[in-house]
Amino acid sequence: MTSYLREKKKRLRGSKVPSSREGEVRALIYCRVSSDRQASEGHGLESQEQRCISFVEQRGYTLEKVFKDAASGGGGYTSRPGQVALLQTIDKFPHRKFVVIVDDISRIARDVRGHFELRAILRAQDVPIESPNYEFNDTDEGEVMETVMASFSQYHRKSNRRQVIQKMKARLEKGYWTFGSKKGYDMLKNPTHGKLAVPNNEGLKMLKPAFERFADGTLVRKIDVCRFLVDCGFWKKQRPDKYIDKLVGFMKDPFYCGDIVYPQWEISRRAGQHEGIISIETYDRMQVRLRKENAGARIRVDISPEFPLRGLLICSECGRHLTGAWTKGHSRKYAYYYCQYRECPIYSKMLKRDSVQDDFHALLERNCLKKEVADLVTLVFDRVWDQEVQSLKQREAADENEARQMKEKVCGLSNLLLGAGNKSEAIQRVFESQLEETAVRLQQLEHQIAHRRDLAIPYRTALEKATGMLRKPVSIWDSVDTLEKHRLFFFLFETKLAYAKETGYRTAESLSKTRLFEEFAVTNPLRVEVRGIEPRSESIYESVSTTHSQR
User: Which residues are bridge partners to 130 per DSSP?
Assistant: First the structure.
């Protein structure tokens, strides 16, 4: 405030602009409401302005300008654009005689410090404040009364804030989101729940498939998910890599699976009243993938067909990445992988590129998915899928039947309500309550029917691609470009592979997806009979028999 007054005095000394009319008092009206919503929906600013204009006319002042703010909470004049503009106007015409008009003392500020900061600046510039509802004066008694009124405004603001937080916290505890709408949702008025988060097309048609494809591994990396969302128009202003942090925030938010959590107010995770766009199982799979090191790893931008395993292999000694490069010999160049960490015991020890890549081919060959395992898995998947389809059809038929009953009930209750015009208000309220509950349930059923699952999904095509890839991983590896090789690698392996010069790849385990299918085959409790395919593999069925006999 002191620096502000010093600058003001400098401007006054250098200014020689005379007043337009001697003795004329120009009124600057200041109006304020607590929120943009009050400004747009209510008439708080209009009523304040009208009362102030009437007061200006009664006093015989000339109306110069009206300044308005829509801001909640305390703070000094610098946080309110309207007050800043008011002071700038006073500075611009230092020789004019101004008076500031406010509807009430609480319009100046909602805390004591902000109130008296502005009062001191105006007093130093010989600009009084007047109000139709309060008489300002500079006596000791007036100062005491003004302090009391400013303190009461501050208490009222803090009390309102406390009550609002208590109400919002109570709704959060009941599972309702009480803040602004999240991406993929709209906040809509519901006759039963009040304001409720409802998935919109953006959430159901863009965000939902993006989450599900990341959870099941179709989209391998976070940048792939960002590209998908940019391509479908979910994000539009920046490059896909600029949205990675925002995407991770979405993926970690349990709101999208139908839960509520707000640690700032100690609200632990709980079931929300809104509908999630993904299932809890999909959300949990996303968290597992996010926690894995390779889930967040980006494919190197310097990948080269000459060194397709660069960025995928780590040193067996220090655990850091192996790089690849050419070295110049006497007559020609040689390709090597090597560790470039200076503290590593095998720093700069060369690993022949061809040996490393031949060992990798051998690793893929050793872990091909056996045909009998693939056939058994396919048969079990077929039967489970058929059961799931039948179950879904039964649930859909039940929903349609219930929806018809709800429509009939709505019609019946509507007729009863129309015929209850001569009955008591209590009976009418009962009919209205029943009609409202029935209408809400009908709306939920219609939403479920409109967004039912697509049973024509060609899951067999995806399954055959997965099993076919595991049957012949080497041929597929050799047939794709380097970028696709990296994507295929993260489909086949859970982590990057360690390589040692003497022992080769330090892993005695199968490919993660191959191991998954084989474990499924030998532990499958359905004990299906494989018909119409090649003869049984005795080793597999012996394993199945052994597994069940041990249980």
Answer: 101
Identify the residue with better confidence: 15 or 58: 58
Domain topology for 185-296: Hect, E3 ligase catalytic domain fold (3.90.1750)
Name every residue whose Cβ is closer than 8 Å to that of residue 259 and which is 6 or more positions away in sequence: 269, 270, 271, 272, 276, 280
Q: Parallel, antiparallel, or unpaired: how do β-strands 97-102 and 129-130 relate? A: parallel
Q: Region 425-429: what's the mean pLDDT?
A: 72
pLDDT over 60 (residue 390):
yes
Q: What is the pLDDT of residue 239?
A: 86
Task: Name residue 25's beta-bridge partners.
Answer: 97
User: Tokens representing 191?
Assistant: 């006759």
Architecture of the CATH domain 2-157: 3-Layer(aba) Sandwich (3.40)
> Would residue 233 be called left, alpha or beta, if left means φ above 0 and alpha means ψ between -120 and 50 degrees?
left
Query: Are 276 and 184 contacting, i.e. CB atoms less than 8 angstroms apart?
Result: no
497 with 314: CB under 8 angstroms? yes
The amino acid at residue 361 is H
**CB contact at 8 A, 322 and 313:** yes
Phi, psi of 218 (to 5 degrees): -65, -45
Beta-carbon contacts of 161 under 8 Å, excluding residues fewer than 6 positions away, are 73
Question: Pairing state of beta strands 185-190 and 194-199?
Answer: antiparallel
How far apart are alpha carbons 407 and 505 in whole angstroms? 66
CA–CA gap between residue 241 and residue 493 (Å, rounded) = 25
Q: Where are the domains of the chain?
A: 2-157, 185-296, 370-471+510-551
- Rounded distance between C-alpha atoms, residue 95 and residue 229, angstroms: 59
Which tens digits make up the pLDDT trace of 325-351?
A: 888 888 888 899 999 888 898 887 888
Q: What is the pTM of this model?
A: 0.41
**Residue 527: what pLDDT?**
44
Which residues are within 8 A (CB) of 463 and not within 5 positions of it... i.e. 6 or more apart?
377, 378, 381
Show Cβ contacts of residue 163 under 8 Å, excluding neighbours closer than 6 positions.
Answer: none
- Per-residue pLDDT tens digits for 456-476: 555 555 566 566 666 677 777
Assign 519 to helix, strand or coil: helix
Q: Which two tokens stand for residue 104?
A: 């009430």
Residue 126 and residue 88 in contact, taking contact as beta carbons nearer than 8 Å: no
What rounded mean pLDDT belongs to the chain?
Answer: 76
